[in-house]
Description:
Blueprint: H1 16-24, H2 29-42, H3 45-56, E1 59-60, H4 61-68, H5 72-84, E2 88-93, E3 96-101, H6 104-118
Antiparallel strand pairs: 1-3, 2-3
Helix pairs in contact: 4-5
Amino acid sequence: MSGAEIECCEVTEVHEELLRAVTAGMPPEEQLSALAELFKVFGDYTRIRILYVLFESEVCVCDIAEALSMTQPAISHQLKILKQAGLVKNRREGKSVFYSLADGHVRTIIAQGMEHVAE
């Protein structure tokens, strides 16, 4: 058997008490759906790179584009998705728009993800 194979039960037996405990602790469907959508946002390489730039400092769109060797429209598109997901916030200063992480949770989620992939 290769390491990629999934082992299954040889008989069908439902463990009622265990099943009740598991289902009692399940969050509502709406919350699970929202969590899945959040992880989809994290599932894009460019968006992860943008978030890492924002770890260091509040940065304007021009600087993010330069740091990642991308166009401003491409960066703006990804920032819109990150903002809709509540992961970044922005402020206007004259003709520039500066972005930063929305809160400490964003840093924690990514740091834990990095810790997991580094294992």
